[in-house]
């Protein structure tokens, strides 16, 4: 190529660069042009739902479009996640999930309905959620230690309620039982609130649910908290020991995050992540989350992807070792 032609192409490229940048900027700023659908693999009124609504109050106005919940309930979140994986990656469909939907449930089925790594684009982890074991305040179960002692001598005698099969409380309590060598009867409900209500009514002996649904009842004197997940005690329940303190070993907190169908446009993912991170960093949101024991995160898509990649192999081995299956 002669020097004049080379110079002409360089000048054309330089001249078109600002226009290219402007067009990209305009495309990014035009998203979203319509409401953003958020698939919720759980019941209305549960932790998924309330968390999305709390975020929507701040993120929606910042985006100029609302976050619209789309409830897809059933099979421990499997139905919702399968629907999300098959949705068009157009930048207008996202979904919330816990570690069980991405790191546990796919391995509980002989033919997984989705691939937790290949079928989704990470957006951000929203928060860590400690899970609390509690009983009625008038229950004869006085502590987690006494519960485990009794459960070892009376396998299958005690019942515990959770938000459903394959949900974080169910999976985490399976880990508790495995390590403590006890067996309690699992009673699954369609969401956390019904499990709490059943415990208060005396229909089940215990409830194992996210702190957001338990703390208010403990403070009101209706429930007695026995133990909590995580490596440190929960600031909202400072007198309640961790499972490690009662000899079970560390039981990690649950976490909730947001993902999108694979190949969702980067601009949409990046913008939504940035607005969520800003919302979670506000004093009001932090106070609202921390009052119920949730610990805000708001990390980058890359960091959230690393969390998923780290969790999946560990829980896959647990499922294989214990034979955990959908009941």
What does this structure look like?
Helix 2 packs across helix 9. By secondary structure, the chain is an alpha/beta fold. Strand 6, helix 6 and strand 7 form a beta-alpha-beta unit. The longest helix has 27 residues. The protein contains 11 helices and 11 strands. It is globular and about 60 Å long. It has 2 domains: 164 residues, D-Maltodextrin-Binding Protein, domain 2; 98 residues, Periplasmic binding protein-like II (D-Maltodextrin-Binding Protein, domain 2, 3-Layer(aba) Sandwich).
CATH architecture of the largest domain: 3-Layer(aba) Sandwich
Strands ordered across the widest β-sheet: 2-1-3-10-4-11
Largest sheet: 6 strands, mixed
Shape: globular
Sequence of secondary-structure elements: HEHEHEHEEHEHEHEHEEHHEH
Helix share bin = 40-55%
Give the helix tally. 11
Distance between the termini: 70 Å
Mean pLDDT: 89
Percent range for β-strand residues: 15-25%
CATH topology of the largest domain: D-Maltodextrin-Binding Protein, domain 2
* CATH top level label of the largest domain: Alpha Beta
CATH homologous superfamily of the largest domain? Bordetella uptake gene, domain 1
The parts where pLDDT drops under 50 for at least 5 residues are 1-28
Number of strands: 11
Class by alpha and beta content: alpha/beta
How many domains? The number is: 2
The Rg value, from CA coordinates, equals: 23 Å
């Amino acid at each position: 190529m002669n020097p004049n032609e080379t110079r002409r192409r360089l000048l054309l490229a330089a001249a078109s660069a600002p226009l290219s940048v402007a067009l990209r900027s305009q495309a990014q700023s035009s998203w979203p042009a319509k409401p953003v659908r958020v698939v919720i693999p759980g019941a209305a009124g549960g932790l998924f739902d309330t968390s999305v609504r709390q975020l929507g109050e701040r993120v929606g106005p910042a985006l100029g479009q609302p976050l619209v919940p789309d409830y897809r309930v059933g099979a421990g979140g499997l139905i919702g996640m399968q629907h999300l994986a098959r949705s068009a990656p157009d930048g207008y469909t996202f979904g919330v999930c816990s570690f069980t939907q991405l790191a546990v449930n796919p391995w509980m089925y002989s033919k997984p309905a989705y691939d937790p790594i290949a079928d989704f684009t990470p957006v951000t982890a929203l928060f860590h959620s400690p899970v609390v074991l509690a009983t009625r305040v008038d229950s004869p179960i006085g502590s987690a230690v006494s519960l485990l002692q009794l459960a070892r001598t009376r396998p299958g005698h005690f019942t515990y309620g959770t938000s459903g099969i394959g949900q974080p409380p169910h999976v985490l309590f399976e880990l508790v039982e495995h390590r403590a060598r006890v067996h309690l009867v699992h009673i699954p409900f369609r969401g956390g609130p019904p499990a709490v209500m059943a415990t208060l009514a005396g229909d089940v002996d215990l409830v194992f649910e996210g702190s957001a649904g338990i703390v208010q009842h403990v403070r009101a004197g209706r429930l007695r908290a026995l133990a909590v997940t995580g490596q440190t005690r929960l600031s909202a329940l400072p007198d309640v020991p961790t499972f490690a303190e009662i000899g079970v070993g560390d039981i990690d907190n649950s976490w909730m995050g947001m993902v999108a169908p694979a190949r969702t446009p980067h601009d949409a993912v990046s913008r939504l992540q940035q607005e969520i991170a800003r919302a979670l960093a506000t004093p009001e949101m932090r106070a609202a989350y921390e009052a119920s024991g949730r610990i805000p995160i708001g990390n980058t898509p890359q960091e959230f992807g690393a969390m998923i990649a780290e969790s999946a192999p560990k829980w896959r081995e647990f499922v294989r070792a214990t034979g955990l299956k959908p009941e």
